[in-house]
Specification:
Layout: H1 11-23, H2 27-40, H3 44-61
Helix pairs in contact: 1-2, 1-3, 2-3
Length: 70
């Protein structure tokens, strides 16, 4: 089970959906690639954001619920 992402606003969800639409199964890898590029540029804010988007994409791909279902 992937770790639960921290989402500070809904634009991260929109980014995840756009990556899934544009890159299909490679969407999480694309988000990780963007995170890596941001880290290389020294932009820790965008690095963290894209890592969370990658985690969200992984979570959305899971077939089982993450935790208790009420």
């Amino acid at each position: 089970m992937p770790p639960m992402p921290y989402l500070d606003d809904r634009s991260a969800v929109a980014d995840a959906v756009a990556l899934i639409r544009d890159h299909g199964e490679a969407a999480a890898a694309q988000a990780a690639k963007r995170a890596h590029r941001s880290r290389g540029l020294g932009n820790h804010i965008h690095f963290c954001r894209w890592r969370q988007v990658a985690r969200l994409i992984d979570l959305m791909a899971e077939r089982r619920a993450p935790g208790t279902i009420h």
